[in-house]
Amino acid sequence: MRHRLFDSAVLASVKRKGKQLALVARDGRALLVRLGMTGQLLLVDSIDPTIKHVHASWAVRASGRLRFLLFRDPRRFGSLIPCCDCDAIDSHWDTLGPDALSVTAAQLAGAAKHRRVPLKVFLLDQSAVSGLGNIYVDESLFLARLHPRACARSLADSEWKNLVTCFQKTLKKSIRMGGSTLRDYRTPDGVLGRFQHMHHVYGRSGELCTVCKAVVEREVVGGRTTSFCPMCQNGSTNVGK
Ligand SMILES: [Zn+2]
Hints:
By secondary structure, this protein is of the alpha+beta class. It has 2 domains: 3-93, MutM-like, N-terminal (N-terminal domain of MutM-like DNA repair proteins, Alpha-Beta Barrel), CATH 3.20.190.10; 105-228, Orthogonal Bundle (Helicase, Ruva Protein, domain 3), CATH 1.10.8.50. It is 22% helix and 24% strand. The protein contains 5 helices and 10 strands. Strands 1-2-3-4-8 form a 5-stranded antiparallel beta sheet, covered by helices on one side. Bound molecules: zinc ion.
């Protein structure tokens, strides 16, 4: 199915790497979409003037039906970048590491070899692996029973393998459930995510661990609020402060 996207363009495909999207037109032009912290693409039947923070809109015809694609971004961390072709997209994406859904344990272990940083900081670094944000790093480290302050370069091969399995499983499950709606996140159809109800640690500091009943703790690691279970995630001998 092809949709008219913007003036004289026909949408041929949507690409993604990490947290970035590219809407690619049939004539080769593309629009790179960085959602940032709070950016949204919404597909609506009509433009409601009471919807705030809409920075761009396009009339979209799909299957003979006219709708509107909105780019909404309350905190303005997102951006829209026109690209003349797919090579231009690739050059924007050159700085991103392998996508989180396809990265291998060996790639991560290689990238972490000389990184004397906390695991949490390493996983949020989009040049090491792209697509992991605060929620999914905290949830995955819990499932992998790894402390967020464990030194990235000290993980054993078996720990990387387990960690990759954990974050890929977590991401796929969240995608199936429409993501995590903590404040105003919506799917493009305006539906609320449901994965927030499945969180083990993120947003649960002060509550009991779902596995061992210890109190979930919260610390700032690399400038980001981090939730973890001090019992389930105390296995590493390389935890630094
Ligand atoms: Zn626990």
